[in-house]
Amino acid sequence: MTSQKDESIPTHDRQSAVETARSEISALSAQIATANRAYHTDDAPEITDAQYDRLKQRLLALEAEFPELKTPDSPSQQVGAPLGEGFGKITHEIRMLSLGNAFSDEDVTDFDERVRSYLGVPSDVIAFTAEPKIDGLSLSLRYENGRLIHAATRGDGETGENVTENARTIADIPWEISGAPEVLEVRGEVYMSHADFAALNLRQVEKNEKPFANPRNAAAGSLRQLDAGVTAARPLKFFAYAWGALSTPLAQTQFLAIERLREFGFSTNPLTKLCETPQQLISHYHDIEQQRAKLGYDIDGVVYKVNDLALQKRLGFRSTTPRWAIAHKFPAELAWTRLEKIEIQVGRTGALSPVARLTPVTVGGVVVSNATLHNEDYIAGRDSKGEQIREGRDIREGDWVQVYRAGDVIPKIKDVDPTKRGDDSAAFRFPQTCPECGSDAIREEGDAVRRCSGGLICPAQAVEKLKHFVSRGAFDIEGLGAKQVETFYKDGWIREPADIFTLRARYGAGLQQLKNREGWGPKSAENLFKAIDERRNISLARVIFALGLRHVGEASAALLANHYGSWSAFESAMTHARLGEGAGWEDLLAVDGIGAVLATSVITAFHQENERASIDRLIAELNVQDAKRRMPTGSPVEGLTVVFTGTLEKMTRAEAKSRAEALGAKVAGSVSAKTDILIAGPGAGSKATKAADLGVKVIDEDAWLALVEGA
To answer: Do residue 110 and residue 73 come from a single domain?
Structure first.
């Protein structure tokens, strides 16, 4: 479908649309990442779940329309957020994933059709369960031989915080259960009722303490108290709705498995219902929506799950969500307010991003004072294709604007009311020079974003790059955060990442430069130097991510690290690679999840003299650790690169890919000299021809199934 769409659109227009979409995806990704941290790590979200999902829905829509822009580090491929400090860590035996979202009746019908298509059963009846989606904090409880061993938050999906002692204080969580499997991980949601929330906030006010913003914040903050006594004094509740690791199955269906959990003594939601058609799911959704205000606790949608657990197993998982479940979310809210000023911010890649400063307004229980304006076209009332949006109404300072929380920390402006403009209203003039350094702000042909041309001489770009370098997913140096980076840059102590690792040599003698500053003493200064030295030994993936290359996030950095294995191999490959041609270019594109846009960004960085010199100075200060190799699976295809082409008759393409990756194979989208096996079904075309030319082994689907049988 993508190729047909491309052929019907002139090349120039398509390229312009792609660049505009790339800019919006970049902005959305940064905003969602900040929102994830506020929600999952800090327990202080500024938005509701429904509002969050609107932004993520926009991101998914862009990635669907422009699949070449979807990267492994996209928020659509991530779960949760990094862990906070203060708790022990527990690795989930089975990952705790998030859910895909539906926002309309059509989305629910599409979900049903996707399930049928994946399973290859277009006319069979597939039953689903439907249950309220509780707006609380996810929790996993592990029982062994009937005894509660530990409790963990979802965290980043792979590792959660150990909140066992706090969980033991919740009346809905039994310490012991009878008749359960030897190993049973019960998963559910910790929440607080409306009545208990109101009573808690009343006590907070009486003690002259700050009241909580909403029940979800109160529940999350209460569960994550370092003092379990504080948690015990808070009125927390728990609904069980799923499970993780099991020594023996609970039942053959989702509905009966939930019944088993109820029999074990857990609270399960009484509104859970079994449905056989999308229409029944939608009907139950509206029934629950009508009861929402009377439930006594917060919900933000209804969750649908395939009832047959055997079908759930066949459907499996995407990178962050199960294929067999989806959350049908309730709509977000809107509000009108005054746009007081439009400010321009400069990011680490030089992008000039307009931000609306608003008269504060409450939207969905959250006070909003800022909103993204995306780019100059959006302000002017044009979309990525140059066509009118908002019927061509532009956005001006002083306008009365409609705001909605779409999931980003900085919300969106949905519309503008030009009838309320004053006589002195004037169209906003987007700056042609950088507001930070005065360099020309250039908008290249086909790019939706105007960028500062100052590079490292631009203080905003330099500071933002340094902030990124010390961020949690990068070097994460204790004691050197965004605030310290700004100060050190202002004082001229650091101008590039390598300067961080020479601080001791330049200012360490007697620690005079640090110990006399406000907030710094000999001990804190020495601790900073030690923290910096500890980060000289660092993983390859973190280094690649920390470089701050355009389009390279944590997930894509990990892909590159795993593919090349060592810094020397990665550096050599990028040094010798050429844009759009040659073995190095093809090898980079052969990495599943790496596209031409990202590849161009990485290669370009290594061929720019100043940036390359900065990278070399940094690496000279480090001991970059090789990427860890995946644990062997013992399968006959482990470590092989395979490509599927043509029509598969005994399983869908998605199912075949998931199975191959689970067995340790690398699945590529194109044939190259590094391809080990091409699995060709009926209709195989150019890939089969190329495989034959390269001497790549070609087998049919039956031979593939025989090869992996029993693995």
So the answer is: no
What is the SS3 assignment for 381-408? CECCCCCECHHHCCCCCCCEEEEECCCC
Say which amino acid occupies 534: E
What is the C-alpha separation between 251 and 582, in angstroms, rounded? 55
Phi, psi of 277 (to 5 degrees): -140, 160
Residues 139 and 282 both lie in one domain: yes
Of 393, 410, 407, nearest to 358 by C-alpha is: 410
Q: Could you tell me if 503 and 522 lie in one domain?
A: yes
Does residue 83 register a pLDDT over 60? no
What DSSP character marks residue 578? Answer: B
Q: Does pLDDT of 14 surpass 80?
A: no
CA separation for the pair 625, 628 (Å, rounded) = 9
Q: Does residue 531 share a domain with residue 555?
A: no
Q: What is the pLDDT of residues 111-138, one digit of tens each?
A: 999 999 999 888 788 999 999 999 889 9
How far apart, in whole angstroms, are the C-alpha atoms of residue 559 and residue 70? 14
Task: Tell me the angle at which helices 11-36 and 49-65 cross, rounded to the nearest 10 degrees.
Answer: 150
Q: Is 90 exposed, middle or buried (0-12, 13-18, 19+ CB in 10 A)?
A: buried
Name the pLDDT band for 219 (thresholds 50, 70, 90): confident
pLDDT at 209: 82
- Catalytic (active site) residue 133: yes
**Active-site position among 133, 273, 666, 687:** 133
Hey, is 193 helix, strand or coil?
A: coil
List of residues 6+ apart from 256 with CB closer than 8 A = 250
Q: How many CB atoms lie within 10 A of CB 502?
A: 15
Q: Which residues pair with 698 in a beta bridge?
A: 678
CATH value at residue 665:
3.40.50.10190
Is there a contact between 699 and 679 (Cβ–Cβ < 8 Å)?
yes
Contact 449, 16 (CB under 8 A): no
pTM: 0.50
Helices (H) and strands (E) counted in the chain, each on its own, are: 27, 24
Query: Which pLDDT band, with edges at 50, 70 and 90, does 491 fall under?
Result: confident
Domain shared by 531 and 543, yes or no: no
In 3D space, the residue among 408, 610, 659 whose CA is nearest the CA of residue 496 turns out to be: 610
Same domain membership, residue 317 and residue 365: no
- Pair of tokens at residue 412: 């969106």
The CATH number for 467's domain is: 1.10.150.20
Q: Per the domain annotation, does 120 fall within a domain? A: yes
Q: Are 550 and 29 in contact (CB under 8 A)?
A: no
